[in-house]
Amino acid sequence: MTQRRYANDLPDQSGRTAVVTGANSGIGLITARELARRGARVLLACRDERRGKEAAARIRAAVPDADVEFAALDLADLSSVREFAAAYTADRLDLLINNAGVMALPYRRTADGFETQFGVNHLGHFALTGLLLPKLLGTPGARVVSVSSGLHVLSNIDMGDLNSERNYRRWIAYGRSKTANLLFVHELARRTAAIGSGLVAAAAHPGYASTNLQTAGVRMENRRTAERVIELGNRIIAQPAAMGALPTLYAATAPGVRSDSFTGPRLLGWRGAPAPSWRAGWTLNDVASERLWVASEQLTGVTFAGLGV
């Protein structure tokens, strides 16, 4: 199987169970739909109940025998993350797709007081993965796929200002949160390898894909002209969301995917079929990844029991 042909070669997923965060729209919805199309049982982990149930109905309309279900999860509230994990009673978890995210928002804080982009994009998924880790480690061939971005190159993390309190710049904060995703994958891969686990921790990014992610921030501020410009760019320049979902699907299901790999679109990391993606060297720094891991455990109160250091 080649990466170029992967759109038509998604392996059979019968008997597998997947959790996809942010599955009510965009990349997450397509990822959930295609996993269900190939036989997986998929839990749509979404903040908004109405939109989550509508997404489940849309998937069933496209895939009549789809085994999909909505489950409430607000990554901006760690109590919701804990409730979701406690309610997850299945005896296995084959795929955890950490897809949900926010981009370039005006300064906001989560329910727990974290800057929203760092809190949702990184800390919420960090806590979710840690709480579901026993299910993942107990499932042969399980994978954790974190959706980062090529825009992680905008900035390394600032360990002295994780909440961007000193000087908030929305795009820099977004880049830091996406760097945090990659550092998390790097450290999770390192720690699971240290205990001899077969769990695969991988990362993916969609390139420039047309979704509602780009317009959320300007819509919050009622910046109508900026919203129209972004929508025009989505129509003219961006690739369809269905193509943007392919790197995630590849990382989640393709044979031979290595832990700590980073998959994105083939053409300059911008668009096209899945291919290995370039990543900034700072996302492969063992010291930085361990420091962020320790800080994230302290901030969330979630520890990854049983993992080596």
Automatic annotation (TrEMBL):
Signal peptide: none annotated. It comes from the Bacteria. Keywords: Oxidoreductase. Gene3D superfamilies: NAD(P)-binding Rossmann-like Domain. Pfam families: adh_short. Belongs to the short-chain dehydrogenases/reductases (SDR) family. This is Oxidoreductase.
